[in-house]
């Protein structure tokens, strides 16, 4: 096993945190021993009912108001008076988006009578926050959950099962990642998939078309570097996960395989995976499509280089395009599908979020009603469009009024997106930088792609067998 890799860091941390909580509870109990008991308060005598007042049974029952059909569809039936829930939503990136979610929540409270404590969690701290909350049995009622986290925390049994969505057609990759071991735990909320963002002015001046496959990517990149002072392509080393792993699919391989008995086995060290990692690393080490510092870049660095017109192409999501257009208004930008790999596909990761309900919620019906309220078509469309993503349903995407760039991102999501293996161990792999470490070693020529991926596969299989 590679030094420093812990196959189940979440379980180990949960055990440690749980022990800490238990010890604290024991200390509190010991401190309380020997203290005098508080005297019991006398119960006040119940007042006799006034003979002149009618019994409650004799009072006429008021006519029940017919529920509003729209409220029923939203899950807001107005019968949650006195119920309180806590909701964790990831910080969406702007005050305007937070205000939008706060507005949705205020409307839900007004329509249902419930009280909602809406808290925004920073993405970088959220995983640890969930781990601590679970260990301390202090979880929210509802939470936004990144799609790769749903299987990880779901294995701990902390999520309630989601009901069958009926005829709703969701993005398949979101359903797969939200249904570990065949149990629906995460309700798809919003999603996005990467596309190729390129400098349209440079392409026009050089008479270039967006590359259709890996070979054309190299040809186009070499032309750009020969004819301009720009680097060709945003290779990222430190943030390579979502750029190199989909190439395994594009090469015709799989990252992992689930056997009939439910166990998983790593397969990314087979020929297709080796070819994918080699191809990605060569864009930096052989073709020099990105500067030396790109070894430690993440996507934001590539995005900044593109904005500064130091980079001609990079892979990004809708929000990345939004940042580019906001900071470089005069830059002519094009968006194209990702280049095909040798297997003839453009498969990429469907990133996004689920909404989950925690199983120990004291107000489960209200918690579920809040989820359904946020998932109403008009709210999903408004929020996902504002944040630069798409609704988690095919119908929701088709209802959007998209420009030519949006059409490309939508096509990548609906026709070319997949999910990583929905295993509890996946979060640990990413947290330990298992894949990015391998990419960086290959980029620097320290090891061959085969050697690096054999080590990665060994670490993955050790974790799967725990």
Automatic annotation (TrEMBL):
UniProt source species: Egibacter rhizosphaerae
Matching Gene3D superfamilies: Periplasmic binding protein-like II
Protein name as it appears in the record: Extracellular solute-binding protein
Stretch forming the signal peptide: 1-24
UniProt feature, compositional bias: Acidic residues: 28-74
UniProt keyword list: Signal
InterPro entries in alphabetical order: Bact_solute-bd_prot1 (IPR050490), SBP (IPR006059)
Domain of life assignment: Bacteria
Pfam families, per the entry: SBP_bac_1
PROSITE patterns: PROKAR_LIPOPROTEIN
Region (Disordered): 28-84
């Amino acid at each position: 096993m590679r030094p420093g890799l812990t196959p189940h860091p979440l379980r180990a941390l949960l055990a440690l945190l749980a022990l800490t909580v238990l010890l604290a509870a024991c200390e509190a109990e010991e401190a309380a021993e020997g203290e005098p008991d508080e005297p019991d308060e006398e119960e006040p005598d119940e007042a006799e009912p006034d003979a002149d007042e009618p019994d409650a049974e004799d009072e006429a029952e008021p006519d029940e108001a017919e529920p509003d059909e729209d409220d029923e569809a939203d899950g807001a039936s107005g019968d949650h008076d006195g119920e309180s829930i806590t909701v964790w939503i990831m910080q969406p990136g702007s005050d305007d988006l937070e205000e939008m979610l706060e507005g949705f929540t205020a409307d839900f409270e007004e329509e249902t009578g419930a009280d909602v404590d809406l808290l925004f969690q920073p993405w970088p701290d959220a995983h640890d926050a969930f781990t601590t909350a679970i260990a301390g049995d202090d979880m929210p009622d509802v939470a936004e959950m990144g799609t790769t986290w749903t299987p990880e925390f779901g294995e701990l049994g902390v999520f309630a099962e989601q009901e069958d969505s009926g005829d709703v057609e969701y993005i398949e990759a979101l359903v797969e990642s939200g249904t570990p071991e065949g149990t629906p735990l995460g309700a798809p909320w919003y999603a996005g998939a990467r596309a190729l963002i390129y400098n349209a002015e440079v392409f026009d001046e050089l008479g270039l078309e967006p590359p259709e496959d890996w070979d054309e990517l190299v040809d186009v990149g070499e032309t750009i570097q020969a004819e301009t002072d720009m680097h060709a392509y945003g290779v990222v080393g430190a943030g390579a996960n979502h750029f190199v792993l989909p190439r395994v699919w594009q090469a015709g391989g799989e990252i992992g395989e689930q056997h009939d008995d439910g166990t998983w086995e790593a397969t990314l060290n087979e020929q297709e995976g080796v070819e994918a990692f080699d191809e990605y690393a060569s864009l930096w080490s052989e073709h020099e499509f990105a500067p030396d510092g790109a070894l430690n870049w993440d996507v934001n660095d590539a995005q900044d280089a593109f904005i500064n017109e130091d980079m001609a192409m990079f892979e990004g999501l809708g929000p990345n395009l939004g940042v580019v257009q906001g900071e470089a208004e005069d830059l002519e930008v094009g968006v194209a599908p990702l280049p095909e790999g040798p297997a003839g596909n453009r498969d990429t990761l469907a990133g996004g979020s689920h909404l989950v309900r925690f199983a120990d919620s004291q107000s489960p019906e209200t918690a579920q009603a809040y989820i359904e309220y946020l998932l109403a078509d008009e709210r999903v469309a408004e929020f996902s469009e504002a944040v630069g993503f798409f609704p988690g349903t095919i119908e929701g995407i088709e209802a959007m009024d998209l420009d030519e760039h949006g059409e490309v991102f939508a096509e990548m999501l609906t026709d070319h997106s997949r999910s990583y293996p929905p295993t509890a161990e996946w979060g640990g792999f990413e947290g330990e930088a298992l894949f990015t470490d391998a990419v960086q070693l290959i980029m620097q020529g320290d090891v061959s792609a085969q050697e690096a991926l054999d080590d990665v596969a060994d670490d993955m299989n050790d974790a799967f067998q725990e």
